[in-house]
TrEMBL record:
<dbReference type="InterPro" id="IPR040017">
    <property type="entry name" value="XPOT"/>
</dbReference>
<feature type="domain" description="Exportin-T C-terminal">
    <location>
        <begin position="348"/>
        <end position="613"/>
    </location>
</feature>
<feature type="domain" description="Exportin-1/Importin-beta-like">
    <location>
        <begin position="102"/>
        <end position="253"/>
    </location>
</feature>
<comment type="similarity">
    <text>Belongs to the exportin family.</text>
</comment>
<comment type="function">
    <text>tRNA nucleus export receptor which facilitates tRNA translocation across the nuclear pore complex.</text>
</comment>
<dbReference type="Pfam" id="PF19282">
    <property type="entry name" value="Exportin-T"/>
</dbReference>
<dbReference type="InterPro" id="IPR016024">
    <property type="entry name" value="ARM-type_fold"/>
</dbReference>
<keyword id="KW-0539">Nucleus</keyword>
<protein>
    <recommendedName>
        <fullName>Exportin-T</fullName>
    </recommendedName>
</protein>
<dbReference type="InterPro" id="IPR045546">
    <property type="entry name" value="Exportin-T_C"/>
</dbReference>
<dbReference type="InterPro" id="IPR013598">
    <property type="entry name" value="Exportin-1/Importin-b-like"/>
</dbReference>
<dbReference type="GO" id="GO:0071528">
    <property type="term" value="P:tRNA re-export from nucleus"/>
</dbReference>
<dbReference type="GO" id="GO:0016363">
    <property type="term" value="C:nuclear matrix"/>
</dbReference>
<dbReference type="GO" id="GO:0005737">
    <property type="term" value="C:cytoplasm"/>
</dbReference>
<keyword id="KW-0694">RNA-binding</keyword>
<dbReference type="InterPro" id="IPR011989">
    <property type="entry name" value="ARM-like"/>
</dbReference>
<dbReference type="GO" id="GO:0000049">
    <property type="term" value="F:tRNA binding"/>
</dbReference>
Length: 625
């Protein structure tokens, strides 16, 4: 070990072994080396001979900085030396199974080589990708580097997320366009060969190849991967016993489906993929071939399939909407639509509607999953579907039996997805004591509340289209939990909240006790109420109190139910609840209820005032916090 290696090792030491003064001296020593003309050759030579990973990293980092800052001005011989050294490291140092370079050094080699690529491709190094693909035949280590280099190309050159100067942006666009013109066909062929070659003997490597490919699909010619050769391979790998490979294949198919294009070509692409028939079979559950690897659990695989299903359904729906709107918009502004164009649009619409009909059972099955990661990706599609129903209802009032069944299944999915998690500490009892646990619980609550807002928005939109069907669903949900000792608090809370949400914008007739079904449900909640086993759960209690206020107009018309409503506010379910957020909220809601009922509460004033005394006393004797 010479002074150079000692200095590098000292600068990378963070365990307190060396004094700050010595670390400063070591940093100054290495920084001085960077300023010398010999630095470039030193980096190239020392990387190959040193046994210290820290020194190798320093050499790569320094070489990368030199390339970024002054590569264009280097002599041709130095540029050739850098190119040759990097390709040697890719094929030699990264392809030694007995002593492989650690991943962080492999990534740095890839990043440094891509920094050279940005200046040399295609003018001075037109065969770069061909050379790299040819080298991949040397072994798995080079295949791994092939993937890392392509990922670095995507991240450092192609990605729009990285801020660049005008010159850097011009260079990046030049490389990207040149890849499209000269190299991507060969690269796509390599993806196909490597994924097929390693699917059995090294499935992790095959998955790495497909993961790399998925990053390119959004911007390359879709025909390079969506063809009669590649698609059957991807579809077969979706059944791989290796979870990582299966997920990578699903991700690639998802990216193909999500590719941005015009509506008619998109529908033609989806039809040619023959993926709709495959996805339709998922109504009985996502594929569950036995996994041979233990790192990827079945739920993670199901989440990937759910994302593919959601993307497929959403893209078909969006294409259908664009096809229909295109013809309608042209007609609306007075432009003539040729018979051929109208016929083509009609065929496309019919095909899209048929594909959606095929997919719907699988979509509904996934949406009703108890796993949020599986169900929630379908939420945007459900919103688009309901918006389409709204448009259809304007033209043809009433729902056919098939649509009614679909709507009910969506409502069932909303009820499942809107349930709170079961952790009593986060939702039912005292908040966690430790700050970290309290922060985690708060973050989880916020995520659940955001999810429920989206779900209830969908619920209300459905109610605007087919109120009787939604009313019947809520009535069944409420009837199955009210008064039942064995009802879970999550089921009760959701049923009560669905009733609360249904009251927003409900038809006037529904609020009338003599004929409105909604009024009957509100009265049932007030008079029967949840079983005492769950009635005092803080979230159930809050839901009941909020509902009482929302349906105060029903109580005005049915004074006999008022005592039961007042009791919910005045006993341990409301102001007397041990949870401060419930008792405080109960006070506020009670004032709103009394204000709404006005003269209707007069007969109950003596009892009401007596019941308020202990709560007022507690308020007077409790210090402000």
């Amino acid at each position: 070990m010479d002074d150079f290696e000692k200095a590098v090792l000292i600068t990378f030491s963070f365990d307190g072994t060396y004094s700050p003064q010595l670390k400063e001296q070591a940093a100054a020593f290495t920084n001085n080396i960077k300023q010398t003309p010999e630095c470039l050759r030193l980096c190239v030579e020392r990387f190959s001979v040193t046994s210290y990973a820290e020194v190798k990293f320093w050499c790569l980092q320094t070489l990368h900085e030199l390339i970024r800052s002054s590569y264009a001005g280097l002599p041709a011989a130095d540029k050739a030396m850098i190119r040759g050294a990097l390709m040697t490291w890719v094929q030699r140092d990264c392809n030694t199974p007995a002593a492989p370079l650690p991943p962080f050094l492999r990534n740095k080699v890839a990043q440094t080589l891509v920094a050279v690529l940005q200046y040399e491709y295609p003018t001075n190094w037109p065969t770069f990708f061909h050379d790299l693909i040819s080298a991949a035949a040397q072994g798995e280590g080079v295949v791994d580097m092939f993937c890392r280099i392509l990922l670095s190309v995507d991240e450092d050159i192609v990605s729009l997320d990285i801020p660049r100067s005008q010159d850097e942006s011009r260079l990046s666009m030049h490389v990207k366009d040149s890849m499209r013109e000269h190299s991507l066909g060969e690269v796509a062929g390599a993806w196909y060969r490597l994924a097929g070659a390693y699917r059995d003997k090294a499935p992790e490597l095959a998955a790495q190849v497909l993961t790399t490919m998925s990053r390119y699909i959004p911007w390359i010619d879709i025909g390079l991967v969506a063809n009669d050769k590649f698609l059957p391979l991807l579809l077969s790998l979706m059944d791989s016993p290796h979870g990582g490979l299966r997920m990578a294949a699903v991700d690639c198919v998802t990216e193909v489906v999500a590719k941005r294009m015009e509506a008619l070509p998109k529908l033609n692409l989806i039809q040619s993929m023959k993926i709709v028939g495959t996805a339709a079979r998922w109504s009985a559950g996502f594929p569950s071939a036995p996994l041979t690897d233990h790192d990827d659990d079945e739920e993670a695989v199901a989440v990937r399939f759910a994302r593919l299903l959601a993307t497929l359904a959403t893209e078909i729906m969006d294409s259908l909407k664009r096809v229909e709107n295109g013809v309608i918009s042209l007609s609306a502004v007075g432009f003539p639509v040729s018979e051929e164009a109208a016929s083509e649009a009609a065929r496309a619409s019919e095909a899209a509607a048929g594909m959606l009909s095929q997919l719907f059972p699988a979509v509904l099955a996934a949406f009703k999953s108890s796993c949020d990661e599986v169900a929630l990706p379908l939420l945007p599609f459900m919103g688009a579907y309901v918006a389409r129903l709204k448009g259809l209802a304007k033209r043809n009032p009433g729902l056919d039996p098939e649509t009614r069944a679909q709507v009910r299944a969506i409502l069932e999915g909303i009820a499942v997805a809107a349930k709170f998690p079961a952790q009593p500490d986060s939702y039912g009892g005292a908040p966690p004591a430790l700050p970290a646990q309290l922060a985690a619980a708060q973050e989880e609550r916020e995520a659940v509340e955001e999810k429920r807002r989206d779900l209830f928005t969908l619920f209300r939109n459905i109610a605007k289209i087919c109120f009787p069907e939604v009313l019947g669903f809520v009535g069944a949900a409420l009837g199955s939990v009210l008064g039942r000792a064995d009802a879970g608090w999550q089921d009760v809370e959701v049923a009560v909240n669905l009733l609360y949400e249904l009251g927003e914008g409900a038809p006037e007739e529904a609020m009338k006790p003599e004929g409105g079904g909604l009024a009957a449900l509100a009265l049932a909640l007030v008079q029967r109420g949840p079983h005492p086993n769950v009635a005092r759960h803080r979230l159930v209690a809050l839901a009941v109190l909020e509902s009482c206020v929302r349906y105060s107009r029903v109580l005005q018309q049915q004074p006999a139910a008022i005592p039961a409503a007042l009791a919910a506010f005045l006993d341990a379910r409301g102001m007397g609840h041990p949870a401060e957020d419930v008792s405080t909220r109960a006070c506020y809601l009670f004032s709103r209820l009394v204000k709404a009922l006005r003269q209707n509460v007069r007969p109950y004033l003596p009892d009401m005032l007596a019941s308020l005394q202990p709560h007022l006393q507690r308020v007077l004797t409790t210090p402000l916090t």
